[in-house]
């Protein structure tokens, strides 16, 4: 049974009993989008999987707490994250009124050293039973990410400095959960302004050499820009 937490402000009104931060860290794994989870060791919900968050310290901003908890619980650090949403339903935590500020990040799954960490990657469309309202938080994060993949350079850290269109298409498909028609994908990405041709080619086997591209800006930027989503072949689960 979790210990109850209560607080009042200086005017005598009920106040949040605590504030925590939740990093929602996503990555393509084996062609599908996954989320990083840890198993809870204490009540409430001991033994269940959850996002690797925790309570803020008095000298931290929420984004600093998200980074600290991510490193403490998974060994992954220095992740670029943007604020996702604040979750403040008084009933979301059985210990009491404890809002959470969630942050969203996208990384290369290889950053997690599974042999040195208890954290694990789970497909976003096949999650285990999760603690608190973390399933809803993850769903919001996936929706935000998929809504941005064609409007910002969020995939910059998942591709080499110079890459081919097939390489880019595999990453975009894993994030978006859909399969793109190759020629429409190439045309759409070229016209998006996110990438530019390098003028170089690479020979990967029989056939014509593949053109190499690069991101127009390699600084992570989740801000939106105008582009058009290309035609898809079929939709995969959960897209």
UniProtKB/TrEMBL annotation:
Organism domain of life: Bacteria
Protein name: NUDIX hydrolase
Spans traversing the lipid bilayer: none
Listed Pfam families: NUDIX, WHD_NrtR
Organism the protein comes from: Candidatus Aeolococcus gillhamiae
Family matches, as CDD domains: NUDIX_NadM_like
Domain Nudix hydrolase: 16-144
Record-level Gene Ontology MF annotations: hydrolase activity
UniProt key word Ion transport: no
Cited InterPro entries: NUDIX_hydrolase-like_dom_sf (IPR015797), NUDIX_hydrolase_dom (IPR000086), WH-like_DNA-bd_sf (IPR036388), WH_DNA-bd_sf (IPR036390), WHD_NrtR (IPR054105)
Alphabetically ordered keywords of this record: Hydrolase
